[in-house]
Predict the structure.
Amino acid sequence: MTVNELEAQLDTICLQAKAAIVAADSLETLEQLRIQYMGKKGPIPQVLGGMGKLDPADRPKIGAKANEVKDAIQGDLDGKKNALQAAAIAAKLEAETLDVTMPGTYRPQGRLHPLTSTTDRILDILVGLGYTVAEGPEMETDYYNFEALNFLPDHPARDMQDTLYLPDGNLLRTHTSTVQIRYMENNDPPIRVAAPGRVYRRDTVDATHSAVFHQIELLAVDEGLTFTDLKGTLKVFLQDLFGEELEVRFRASFFPFTEPSAEVDVMWKGRWLEIMGCGMVDPNVLKSVGYDPEVYTGFAAGLGIERVAMVLHQIDDIRRLYNSDLRFLNQF
Ligand code: DAH
C-alpha cells in the first residue's frame, strides 16, 4: 500500500462514518456507530496495521491523518448525540404541554336538599327564639306515640293517624310529639324544645300525601304560659319564616294531647293551606311525665316540613321532594 492509498482509505472511512452518523435517528443507533467506527476492532486500527510496509518517514503522516479522522468522527458523534438528546427533551416537552386555554373538568357543586335547608331555616328561627334542638327514635312504643299523649285505648283519635305497626308490637312513630314526652321525662321545666324528625303513616301517596314525611315539634313548658304566648310565638315564627305579608289564621281543632287545640293555616295560591297543629299541653300529658299541672302550663305545636318547603318554594307535588330528579333539585 502506498501512502496515498492509505490516506484514501482513511478518507473513505471518514465519509462513511459521517454519512452514517447523519442518518442515525436514535441514541442506540449512534452508540452502535461509535463502537463500529471508534472501537479497537474498527476500520482505523486496521488501516494503521497496514503501515508496516511504508517508508518509516511516511508513517507519522498516516498516524496524524488517522488522528484527524478519529477526531472528526468523534466530533460528529458528540454533535449528533447532543442533537438527539435535545430532540428527545423537546419531544417530551411538546407531549406534556399544558394548554391552559382548554376547558377544565367540570365538578358539579353539591347543595342541600330543599327539605334539609327548610329544616335548617326553621330550626334557626326557633333557636333564635330560645329553643333547644332534641331528637327521638323513629321506632316507638304505643306508650310514647299514643298513651302518654293522652290517646285513650280504643279512642277514635287513634284513627286520625293510620299507624304502621311492627311485628313486635312497636310502631313507626306517626308524629314527632313523642319527643315531647321523652324530653320532659329527662328534663325539668322551664322547657323550650324543638324536635325535627321523620314520621310514618299508612297513607296513600298523592300530590300532598306521603307515607314518610318530616315534622318539627315545638314544646314550651313554664309557669304561667297561656294561649297568648302560643299565638305570639307562632306568629313571630311564621312571619320570620314566610315574610310579614303572609296571611295566617288559627282555627279551632282537636288533638288528644292539647286543650284547647288549633290548626294554623297560611293563605297560599288563593286558598288556606294547613301548615301546623298546636294547642295548650293537656294537663294529662303533664301528669304523665310527673309535672304538676297546677304549677306548670305549656304549649305545643307540630308542623310538616314538606308543607313549609312546598309553600316557600312553590312546589306543587310533594313527590318531587323524594324522587331525586336533578332537574328539579338543581333549582334550589
Ligand atoms: N302531632 C300532630 C300531628 O302529627 C301535630 C300536632 C298538633 C303537634 C298539635 C302538636 C300539637 O304539638 O300541639 O298531626
Residues 3-95 form one domain.
